[in-house]
Amino acid sequence: MAKVEKLTRAELPGGSSHPVHQQPCPHICREIERPLQGWSPVHQPEPAPRLELTPYIGCVAGCGFCFLNGYPGLYRLGQEDKLITVYKNYSHHLKKTLEKLRVAPPAILSPYTDPFQPINDRYGLAEELVKECVLVNLPLEIITRYHIPDEILAMMEYLPASRVQVSIDPFEREGPVPHYRERLDFMERIDQLGLDVVVRLDPIFPGEENPEGVLANMATEIALRELDQVVIGFGRINSNLHSRFVEPAPELYEKHPDRDNCWLVASGERRRLSKLAKGIFSSRGINIGILGFSSLQEEFGDFKTPFKNTLPLSERESSGEKFQPVERCPGNCRVCSESVCGIGRLFESPYRAERLKASDWERWSEQRLQGELLN
Ligand code: SF4
Hints:
Elements: E1 3-5, E2 9-11, E3 17-19, E4 27-30, E5 51-53, E6 56-57, H1 73-80, E7 84-87, H2 90-99, E8 103-104, E9 107-109, H3 119-123, H4 125-136, E10 140-144, H5 150-156, E11 162-168, H6 180-192, E12 197-204, H7 211-224, E13 229-234, E14 236-238, H8 242-245, E15 253-255, E16 262-265, H9 267-282, E17 287-290, H10 294-300, E18 314-315, E19 324-325, H11 344-347, H12 358-369
This protein binds iron/sulfur cluster.
């Protein structure tokens, strides 16, 4: 674990030492060197590939339910010591990565730590990354609990395939992020701009008092703003959160089938809460999707996939061109019947594929150039 001495310098494992900057919150600056990688299908709620963009490690919101609690390395530094790592060269790194690709997944900003936490006001890395995606027409998904700057929304109007998910914990257990009503107002504005915006109720845990009343209130607030898409994400518990969530009500949780020290909401509870949500939101004309559990999505979801619109794979002939969507790619490998991309690792075991690296996409890009894929 890193040692932070009087918040003036941070000594990291491996021997590197970094000055700690104080404004707007304690942080260190580093250069990202590792190849970009995909969002692990084990973690992601929709079985489709994504290129993960995480310019900041650690999050000042520090929500108590965050699944990053207990993660090692820089994540621990961010969560426990509240010291954020800033990768100042991230957009340059993305640009260099994309130059090599002729086949690329949509990008996601940022699945692990919030891209619009206050540190972004100082460094503007989210703006730089969105700009890179817009310049090459790479589909982009944003997930946040904060407000998104107008500059970004203006850029996204030029990106035909994009989605904004604004997360809300309906039970109000979040850290210091804008109040959920403010976020809903903000989503109303995004919707009026014509961008695809989804209210992401996440994480849902069982055992809360009055879930009917809380979800009904949320549905009323959402309907008032004429938003029509909600997705529900159930909480995932790692060993650091076990005593807070699982120990008081072990009957409401079950062990993750594939991961040690990880618990999921028990299947019966997931079904009960999904049914409850479906009834409440449908009665107000709001569509719902269920993240991560295909059987629940099939039973209670309003679309074939958790989202109304999907983000497809992209391809292009040369690095000077913009990406174009792969024709007939439904953007969800689980429901893909044609497998037009020809990439077996995606459609053969969409939930179980290993985390895809930039090098995988480089190899598939080479195969595409050789006429072995997508021709
Ligand atoms: S073509 Fe099918 S398998 Fe390939 S990325 Fe698209 S949805 Fe997934």
